[in-house]
Specification:
Helix content: 25-40%
Bound molecules: zinc ion
Strand order of the largest sheet: 5-4-1-2-3-8
Number of strands: 8
CATH architecture of the largest domain: 2-Layer Sandwich
CATH topology of the largest domain: Nucleotidyltransferase, domain 5
Number of helices: 8
Number of domains: 2
Structural class: alpha/beta
Radius of gyration: 19 Å
Order of helices and strands: EEHHHEHEHEHEEEHH
Shape: globular
């Protein structure tokens, strides 16, 4: 069984792009990825602090809120607020190293990142992003089976703080018929489930992937700090990136030079544009 953990960014109005990102791991890797993040966090925290009290939420680590004691009810500061900027950025780098450098238990069951970045010009950007990511995850499961591995099925687990109410209905429909992308979600066993990011380091890993995409695609000036160590972790086969797609008007005109757009110039697996 494969588990695909997802998180989103840029859902607010005015955002230049909607970003959906995450990490797919075989069931036997879940414990090890979580332990890797937990161990990194505990090692970097000063004595007297417990890793369990800290959520690896990239935006919050980078820019923690100081809270507002005068508000009603009072807003407490972020637990990250007590640490200085240099410490927090170093810790964030540690978190990215932990997921970017993770080696899977069994190479027959590789870990893979997935993502879809959809330009704000598309009114159905959320649906497009989910459609792209879920089909790409499904396609990977089919490919692993075709390549001689056991037939693994997958489930999708999403951060519940950003619940998209339509997601389960969309997925149910895509399982039966799909309009934009050929093929059904034959390898995904059920509708997506939801989990609390506070209690799941795997959802926090998905947050790290999504944040790196947001910093690269969602700002006027691309920030490559966090994505640079992750590009090669997105699902790929035969040197061709499948796990990440950038849906934007500039692609059709051949004007986007980002890695997934360049990969898509080669034989495409969808009609995302
Ligand atoms: Zn692009």
């Amino acid at each position: 069984m494969y588990l695909l953990y997802l998180d989103e960014s840029g859902a607010h109005g005015g955002s230049p792009a909607y970003v959906l990102g995450g990490i797919a791991v075989h069931e036997q890797d879940v414990y090890h990825v979580q332990q890797r993040l937990e161990t990194m966090l505990q090692a970097k925290l000063p004595d007297g602090f417990a890793a369990a009290d800290f959520e690896l939420h990239a935006q919050e680590i980078k820019s923690p809120k100081q809270g507002d004691p005068a508000a009603r009810p009072p807003k407490p500061p972020s637990p990250w607020f007590q640490f200085d900027y240099r410490f927090r950025i170093d810790l964030l780098r540690g978190a990215y190293s932990a997921i970017g450098g993770y080696s899977c238990v069994n190479t027959q069951y590789p870990c893979a990142f997935f993502g879809a970045v959809v330009d704000r010009h598309y009114s159905d950007r959320k649906r497009r992003a989910y459609e792209e990511v879920l089909h790409r995850f499904d396609e990977m499961l089919g490919r692993l089976s075709r390549d001689g591995g056991p037939h693994e099925r997958g489930i999708v687990i999403h951060d519940e703080s950003t619940v998209e109410k339509n997601l389960q209905a969309w997925t149910q429909r895509w399982r039966e018929v799909t309009d934009r992308i050929p093929g059904t979600l034959g390898h995904i066993v059920d509708v997506p489930f939801f989990a609390d990011s506070k209690s799941s380091r795997m959802i926090q890993a998905a947050d790290l992937v999504t944040f790196s995409l947001w910093r690269f695609y969602g700002l006027d000036r691309s920030d490559t700090t966090w994505i640079d160590g992750l590009w090669d972790r997105f699902d790929a086969s035969d040197g061709h990136m499948h796990g990440l797609v950038h849906v934007n008007p500039r692609f059709r005109a051949g004007k986007c030079g980002c890695r997934p757009c360049q990969a898509r110039i080669a034989p495409a697996i969808s009609a995302a544009d």
